[in-house]
Design a protein that fits this description.
The protein is an alpha/beta fold. The chain has seven helices and 36 strands. It has three domains: about 180 residues, Sandwich (Jelly Rolls), CATH 2.60.120.260; about 100 residues, Immunoglobulin-like, CATH 2.60.40.10; about 300 residues, TIM Barrel (Alpha-Beta Barrel), CATH 3.20.20. It has an eight-stranded parallel β-sheet. The chain has a six-stranded antiparallel β-sheet with strand order 5-3-6-12-9-10, with no helix packed on it. A four-stranded antiparallel β-sheet has the order 2-16-7-11, with no helix packed on it. The chain is globular. Keywords: Glycosidase, Hydrolase.
Length: about 625
């Protein structure tokens, strides 16, 4: 396999970039450990320059490659160095060589090949042999490549990717082959870190912790995998495998428990410090997989004591509660897009920037809008202390029977989804929930947005609640706000919330007495700044007809809306989501410009107004 002559890597195109773009280099591309919730010391980062080629769908492995791409930036992005479209009729090929380290940590160990995320279907080959395939654009996956690698020589890794984007009913979020308005540039291929990890034959696959703040307990489940046991027998083997779990604070062991893999063990703490945005206390976990009282594997994690629930207040209004107290959720709609990396932040510092600045503006929540982030983003939310509403990336489904019953209860018509499409939804939504479930910052699941691909709402809600009963479910943010009929034909609420959208000003709509009432989107006030625009032809836009001349009048309108919202909190709203964190492509309605170089609002005035909104709801 030949490749085109290598050219020095450089960002492609001349569109705006963030300040962190200058820090990106092939020699150090997102070098941070990618999985903070399950840590082992030994690993090898495979980010950097790979060969790439774009070929017609179904073609053989290309004899020659088109050039080099900087992984893990999407091929359509500037930081990939390529900035080319792929589309549903083509496939994207990647190739690189690697060697397995020879140190003691790798000796006589199995080698796992990890992908943070690849959009959408990935077929992986090691030294010409098929190592595995995965579908789904948002979650990590891995393959045991021990039998395919040569320990003392160079190995060839090839990845073939097909991504139809919106030419399918796969989850795509805001991606579009024809970006305009609220639809953005398509993302294809590898867009999160690729890495190798040595593990024992029997190793810890995951660590999940669920707290009970009333009992002062933490239920920790350690799941395990084994290279020597067929998949159908793993569940039975898990029950027999002994595990030991320790709860630590500043390296001091506070509690220890023993049990078996696949079953929860209970750690008790008399007076745990509760996690909240005001005090994001995290405890360390250490898990050991035992064999004949010896460590077969060991991994580090972390957990928090916190509870998300709902309860009626003194006026009979259903409210969300954090740790047993009424708690108003207020934050921005966060798209998670970057002008230089698209789905992929240029650096870990950049990834953390949006979270830090959101908190500095006085918010306590982020709605992660129809996108999923790398695991380090949720780790930063856990550490910094911010609540997360996690959306399911939506499908583009209009024309499939969907009708949006906007701002009415039990209105509209859901989407006609094929059985295959429904199966894929559950598969990807389940994987996203598994990814986020161990993060205390994630408190609300949002399976649908504005009737985009919405189907079988009550069944999806029941499935989501059964998979994770410890969090609240917002069934369809601004979508078809479904009721369902019980056995005697009475209309009953679906899930925990009724969520309305209204632009630009906040507005209260009638909900129902058994669900929390929230304003899932409002605002969207636009101020295009000429030197910071993705599109320079004047077609940038935001919600509403008000034209702003600068920071002062834009801030004044935000404060005006915040004051309106305070009255609506007293009347029933328990959460609000302002659109949005940053400008995105031609949308100019962010607190920050798309390149993150300018905060368009007065920070002190915006922070004071936002804190006043949160403080409108008494804790008791």
């Amino acid at each position: 396999m030949a490749s085109a002559p290598a050219k020095p890597w450089a960002p492609a195109g001349d569109l705006i970039k963030t300040p962190w773009a200058a820090q990106v280099s092939p020699e150090s591309t997102l070098p941070e450990y990618p999985r903070p919730r399950l840590v082992r010391d030994a690993w090898q980062n495979l980010n950097g320059l790979w060969d790439y080629a774009i070929t017609p769908k179904g073609a053989a492995l290309p004899a020659a490659f088109d050039g080099q791409i900087l992984v893990p930036f999407p091929v359509e992005s500037s930081l990939s160095g390529v900035q080319r479209e792929v589309g549903p009729d083509n496939e994207l090929w990647y190739k690189r060589e690697f060697t397995v380290p020879v140190g003691a940590a790798w000796r006589e160990k199995n080698v796992l090949l990890h992908f943070g995320a690849v959009d959408w279907r990935a077929d992986v080959f090691v030294n010409g042999a098929p190592a595995g395939s995965h579908t789904g654009g948002y979650t990590p996956f891995s393959f045991d490549i021990t039998n395919y690698v040569k320990p003392d020589a160079a190995n060839t890794l090839v990845v073939r990717v097909w991504d139809p984007t919106d030419a399918s009913d796969h989850p795509v979020g805001k991606q579009s082959r024809k970006p305009k308005g609220i639809w953005y540039t398509a993302v294809t291929g590898i867009w999160q870190t690729v890495w190798l990890e040595p593990v024992s034959t029997n190793y810890i696959k995951d660590i999940q912790a669920v707290s009970d703040i009333d009992a002062g307990t933490l239920a920790v489940t350690v799941t395990q995998r084994s290279a020597g046991i067929p998949a159908r027998e793993i569940a039975d083997w898990n029950v027999r495998a002994p595990v030991e779990v320790e709860l630590l604070d500043n390296d001091k062991v506070l509690a220890t428990a023993r049990g078996h893999a696949g079953q929860a063990v209970t750690l008790s703490l008399k007076t745990p410090i509760l996690w909240s945005p005001e005090n994001p206390k995290l405890y360390d976990l250490r898990a050991r997989l035992l064999s004949d009282e010896k460590n077969a594997d060991e991994a580090r994690s972390y957990a928090a004591f916190r509870q998300i629930s709902m309860q009626r207040d003194a006026a009979g209004i259903m409210r969300m509660q954090l740790n047993g107290k009424n708690y108003f959720h207020f934050g921005p709609l966060d798209q998670g897009w970057w002008p230089d990396g698209l789905y992929t932040a240029p650096t870990d510092e950049a990834l953390r920037f949006d979270i830090i600045k959101t908190k500095e503006l006085g918010f306590n929540m982020i709605r992660k809008h129809v996108k999923v982030e790398p695991q380090r983003w949720y780790y930063h939310c856990d550490r910094e202390g911010i609540l997360v509403w996690q959306d399911m990336p939506s499908t583009h489904s209009y024309g499939l029977g969907a009708k949006w019953g906007r701002n009415e209860l039990d209105g509209g018509t859901d989407t006609l989804r094929t059985p295959l499409s429904k199966d894929n939804f559950y598969k990807e939504w389940g994987e996203i929930m598994d990814l986020c479930q161990g993060h205390p910052s994630v408190v609300v699941w949002v399976p649908f947005n504005e009737a985009w691909g919405q189907f079988d709402t009550d069944k999806v809600v029941q499935w989501t609640k059964q998979r994770d009963p410890s969090r609240l479910v917002n069934p369809a943010s601004g979508g078809n706000l479904r009721m369902y009929k019980d056995a005697v034909g009475v209309l009953r609420p679906c899930a925990d919330m009724v969520d309305f959208h209204h632009y630009p000003e906040p507005k209260l709509f009638k909900g129902d007495a058994d669900r929390v009432l929230v304003l899932g989107e409002y605002g969207g006030l636009a101020l295009p700044l000429p030197d910071h625009l993705w599109q320079r032809d004047g077609k940038n836009w935001g919600y509403g007809k008000v034209k702003f001349t600068g920071r002062d009048d834009l801030t004044a309108k935000h404060v005006e809306y915040a004051n309106m919202l305070k009255g609506l909190v007293k009347d029933g709203f328990s959460a609000a989501v302002y659109t949005q964190t940053t400008d995105v492509e031609i949308e100019a309605n962010g607190f920050y410009t798309y390149d993150r170089k300018v905060l368009k609002f007065d920070p002190a005035a915006a922070r004071a107004a936002n804190l006043e909104v949160i403080g409108t709801l008494p804790a008791e």
